[in-house]
From TrEMBL:
Pfam families, A to Z: DNA_binding_1, Methyltransf_1N
GO molecular function per UniProt: methylated-DNA-[protein]-cysteine S-methyltransferase activity
Domain Methylguanine DNA methyltransferase ribonuclease-like: start-end pairs: 2-84
More info: This enzyme catalyzes only one turnover and therefore is not strictly catalytic. According to one definition, an enzyme is a biocatalyst that acts repeatedly and over many reaction cycles.
InterPro entries the record matches: MethylDNA_cys_MeTrfase_AS, MethylDNA_cys_MeTrfase_DNA-bd, MethylDNA_cys_MeTrfase_DNAb, MethylG_MeTrfase_N, MGMT, MGMT_N_sf, WH-like_DNA-bd_sf
Reaction catalyzed: a 4-O-methyl-thymidine in DNA + L-cysteinyl-[protein] = a thymidine in DNA + S-methyl-L-cysteinyl-[protein]; a 6-O-methyl-2'-deoxyguanosine in DNA + L-cysteinyl-[protein] = S-methyl-L-cysteinyl-[protein] + a 2'-deoxyguanosine in DNA
Keywords: Cytoplasm, DNA damage, DNA repair, Methyltransferase, Transferase
Protein name: Methylated-DNA--protein-cysteine methyltransferase
Organism: Nocardioides marmoribigeumensis
Catalytic residues in the record: C142 (nucleophile)
Length: 174
């Protein structure tokens, strides 16, 4: 089941399985810049190949998710209280759970996330790959992960959306 909501970062399709949120898809135009084409292309492939049930705008879970996202975008909600069951490998699930520990208004580097998971060596690269496959952006805040220099790096919804999400959270702190 699914529904579409309008947000400051464009339309989002919320997908659920009846008991949990399983995906959030960025819809509409996803302009790409240098270095982000692969991230956006991979996200679009996941969206385009996802098998969906019927639209269910009145479903209580999807309505609650829509309400919490609306409150987040109004800067009234910093932590989501939604059942989330993304589909992924055990490693991806560990990374996505770690992303949920990054506080609102903060960022972490790929290396910091890797270290928190006890990874060394190329762990940051593996975290980056898992981060890029996060099927529940915003709620599982992959936008809060940045490059080692603090720079914005690829984002499945496009770097412009990542920047907007980070600015929304930063502005709410002051």
């Amino acid at each position: 089941m699914w529904t579409v909501i309008e947000t400051p970062v464009g339309p989002l399709r919320l997908v659920g399985d009846g008991s949990a949120l399983t995906a959030i898809d960025f819809l509409g135009e996803m302009p790409t810049g240098v270095g982000e084409a692969a991230s956006v292309r991979n996200a679009a492939l996941r969206i385009d190949t996802r098998v969906l049930d019927d639209q269910a705008d009145g479903d209580p879970l999807l309505r609650d998710a829509a309400a919490q996202l609306a409150a987040y975008f109004r800067r009234e909600l910093e932590e989501f209280d939604l059942p989330v069951v993304p589909s992924g490998t055990p490693f991806q699930l560990r990374v996505w759970e770690q992303l949920r520990a990054i506080p609102y208004g903060s960022t972490a580097t790929y290396g910091e996330v890797a270290a928190a998971l006890g990874l060394t060596g190329h762990g940051a690269r593996a975290v980056g790959t898992a981060n890029g496959r996060n099927p529940v952006p915003v709620v599982v805040p992959c936008h809060r992960v940045v490059g080692s220099s603090g720079s914005l790096t690829g984002y499945g919804g496009g770097l412009h959306r990542k920047q907007l999400l980070l600015e929304l959270e930063q502005d709410a702190l002051f």
